[in-house]
Design a protein that fits this description.
It is a single chain. The chain is of the alpha/beta class. It has two domains: 134 residues, Rossmann fold (3-Layer(aba) Sandwich); 79 residues, Arc Repressor Mutant, subunit A (Orthogonal Bundle), CATH 1.10.10. It is built from eleven helices and six strands. Strands 2-1-3-4-5-6 form a six-stranded parallel beta sheet, with helices on both faces. Helix 7 packs across helix 9. The radius of gyration is 17 Å and the shape is globular. The two termini are 24 Å apart. The mean pLDDT is 87.
Length: 222
């Protein structure tokens, strides 16, 4: 099944250009377009896409609010921010709201396609500039439960951009077991998303930032 995508951007030329780009890939199907955040939320609720590619600066409802509502109502739908905004507070708020990816509008077409596919697989996908800003914001919680050996293995693979399916294959365990481990990791680290868990792993030295860059470039070998 192709990855079902909604493109949300208030600039018609940009929106249509992204749509044309995505439709060149047979593994992606653009199922809707939205010109503002409210339209994006309404379309997402109706169509339940795999991924929403979301601009942030839009009329009626901004992208950050739309991301928050979509993640609340449709936890299975992943969101990638595609924007020109790089202010620290905006980047941080978008990731905290639940976006799994964040790209700038100067990204190549190939990178946008990779980000959409990565998001559909539940993988973290951040531009280098965004990753650098986010890592600065990540702080070690004052009190956390220690991760088990298996949870640490899962976190390392998650931070390297692996999906639940890839983690399951690498560790020879079931996807449901991986899902349970990820939930436990988020709870213990007191972070709300896989993205922030990955950034925590980089910040604390569990993996290097270079692994995140390699994941952006096509992923590591299992």
């Amino acid at each position: 099944m192709p990855v079902r995508v909604i493109v949300a951007d208030d600039h018609t030329v940009m929106r249509q250009g992204v749509r044309m780009l995505l439709t060149l890939d047979p593994d992606i199907e653009v199922v809707g377009e939205a010109g503002n955040g409210q339209e994006a939320v309404e379309l997402a609720r109706r169509l339940q896409p795999d991924v929403v590619l979301m601009d942030l600066l839009m009329p009626v409802m901004d992208g950050l609010t739309a991301i928050t509502l979509i993640r609340r109502d449709l936890p299975q739908t992943e969101i990638v921010a595609l924007t020109s905004v790089l202010e620290d507070n905006v980047v941080i708020d978008v990731v905290r709201a639940g976006a799994v990816g964040y790209l700038l509008k100067d990204a190549s077409g190939e990178e946008v396609i990779r980000a959409v596919k990565a998001a559909a697989a539940g993988q973290v996908y951040l531009s280098p500039q965004v990753a650098a800003k986010l890592i600065k914001d990540v702080r070690s919680p004052e009190q956390t439960e220690p991760l088990t050996r298996r949870e640490t293995e899962v976190l390392k693979l998650l931070a390297r951009g692996h999906s639940n399916k890839q983690i399951a294959q690498a560790l020879n365990i079931g996807e449901k077991t991986v899902h349970s481990h990820v939930g436990a990791i988020l709870s213990k680290l007191k972070v709300p998303s896989r993205t922030q868990a990955a950034l925590y792993a980089i910040r604390t030295g569990l993996v290097s930032i270079n692994t995140l860059q390699r994941a952006r470039q096509g992923g590591e070998q299992d």
